[in-house]
Design goal:
The chain is built from 3 helices and 4 strands. By secondary structure, it is an alpha+beta fold. It has a domain of 52 residues. A 4-stranded antiparallel beta sheet has the order 1-2-4-3.
């Protein structure tokens, strides 16, 4: 299955990260499995938009999701 993403149309270069990710792209971006992405969407933990038959996730929402996980974790001590 091919990962699909939506790139900005304002003439930016192709190395610009996509604005929207599908389930597979979201799984790759977050390091989760596609099934986990679907479960997080179903429980409301990840925001998504259904456009036609496809489900899309905003990169900004994914970044906020990841940051929230880091904010709740404990910091590791330097034992050197």
């Amino acid at each position: 299955m091919q990962t699909r993403a939506v790139l900005p149309r304002n003439g930016t270069q192709r190395d610009t990260p996509p604005l929207l990710y599908d389930v597979i792209g979201t799984a790759y971006y977050t390091g989760l499995t596609p099934r986990t992405v679907q479960e997080l969407r179903a429980t409301g933990q990840l925001n998504a938009a259904k456009i036609g038959r496809r489900i899309w996730f905003r990169r900004s929402d994914l970044d906020a999701f990841i940051e929230a996980r880091f904010a709740g974790s404990t910091q590791l001590e330097d034992v050197g």
